Amino acid sequence: MKPHKMDETFQMMDSKGFFRLEIPEKLNMARLVVDFWAQHGRGQDVAVYYKDQQITYQDLKDMTDRFANAMHRLGLSKGDTYLIRTPNQPEYMISFLGGQKIGAVPIPTSTMLREYELEHIINNSEAVAVITTSSYSEAIENIRPKCETLKYVIVIGDTQGDQISYADLLKEAAGSLPFVETHKFDPSFFLYTSGTTGAPKGVVHGHRFIIGAGDPIGKFTMGLEKGDICGGPTALTWMYALGHNFLFAFRWGVATAIYADERFNSARAYEYIEKYKITIFAGTPTIYRMMLAVKDAEKKYDTRSLKYCLSSGEPLLAETWREWMRRFGVKIIDSMGQTEAHEFCTAQTHLNVKIGSMGKPLPGIEVAIVNDKGDRLPPGEMGHLAIHRDHPGLFTEYFKMPKQMQEISLPNNWYDTKDLAHMDEDGYFWYGARSDDIMTCHGYRISPADVETALQEHEAVLESGVAGVMHPEMGEKVKAWVVLHDGFNATPELAKELQNHVKATIAPYKYPREIEFLEELPKTSSGKILRRELRRWHKEKKQKKENRLP
């Protein structure tokens, strides 16, 4: 397979003035980001820093080859799907890329997901294998009898029963890999994202993603060049970090440093930057606010290696940007992105900063504000934030969900991000609101249906409605309005019990930070909960409280 040459990527413009990304028909993501560098003079360059380990591109090629062969011997082949459920560690990267080499399709999943969520993902994706660690294998074993397609549980660490040891798989010599030809539209990985209703959707990306998203982001948002070291404290299973701190770093042949702690700690984040001399740091507004809370951090820690800091997942407040710039002299590059497309609109390294805006669309990506008919709207007018469907970094489908694919389609071949925004006279985009009910809390996208379902499994809950309400630190706060069964009393103790129940049922970050008890919920004539009314009630209640203050 002839590798795509990076130095040709940005040289051609189309008739609309957009960079044209040349993507070959035959393409394999893993071979492009690993084998290319091992075979073209960067084999001894460090690809991954992890604790005190240094893994070169040649090391990475050898390990991914061994994993690919091991998966092939187990019987996995092109199109077979497999879950990865690990913390941030090299084995995650090796498993992700190794399977891709034989055309198999990795599905990274958060370690915070609960059993019912994992069961849905395995069954919906028809996953054949799961790669996990001994500390996270129990949930997989508990649901294994309910997952008909699941044949293999591969464990990093101690194994039990018929589990397969990851270390044993990689002991055998790599040998020559079986030739598996993959094309740019073939599935390369899935990520599951919450929907406004129903179960999480499987967002399928083709091998073209690595060029379609990785090249404009790597050049214009990250400003990558030889010698850079990327990193950040967020989970690599999140699209944001999956790109910046993993795939895009490898696409550009630079290094990444893995943040090993599963819990964020501000002091440890500074130590991490200092130890590995991070040049491109990817965080969230919450992370930057927490780091700024460390008194005299700019004097205690050496952060001079930083070139750019990146931000996404929630609104970046002006005071956060200004204070970070004042204390560290480094710009925070804000961005707008989705699981379906990664970043498509960013502040970019070469642009003048307009604090609070999403920046401008990345070169090579056609983005517009359109109306319901798919017609472009003039500057200043709020409308659908839309991406043209020919963007090669865009997802290819929601797996086995054709109805949901129709719901995100607008006339004139636009993909509807389900966000509302406007563009100013200078071409900068400004966020308005979600056009659906998805909540974004601390950068996590949360479906209200997930939280409502979890709440209603508690014996005290008759009905529940969940919506996001604005919060200065979290972006949006998950709030629940609950109607109780007869015989249960609305008390602070019960509210706390319900919060703990949600934490134990689904991923803990989804739990409602506030619970309000009601006699009944606002509904449409067809019985659907009016979440916009819940949000309005909250806003009015807050305003009345503020007006009563002296």
Chain-wise SSE layout:
Layout: H1 29-39, E1 46-50, E2 53-56, H2 57-74, E3 81-85, H3 90-100, E4 105-108, H4 115-125, E5 129-133, H5 137-143, E6 152-156, E7 164-165, H6 166-171, E8 187-193, E9 201-206, H7 209-212, H8 214-221, E10 229-232, H9 239-251, E11 255-258, H10 266-276, E12 280-283, H11 285-292, H12 297-300, E13 308-311, H13 318-328, E14 332-338, E15 342-346, E16 360-361, E17 367-370, E18 383-388, E19 397-398, H14 402-407, E20 409-410, E21 414-423, E22 429-434, E23 439-441, E24 444-446, H15 448-456, E25 461-471, E26 475-484, H16 492-505, E27 514-517, H17 531-548
Parallel strand pairs: 1-11, 3-4, 3-5, 5-6, 6-7, 10-11, 10-12, 12-13, 13-14, 26-27
Antiparallel strand pairs: 1-2, 8-9, 9-19, 14-15, 15-16, 17-18, 18-21, 20-21, 21-22, 23-24, 25-26
Helix pairs in contact: 1-2, 1-3, 2-3, 4-5, 8-9, 10-11
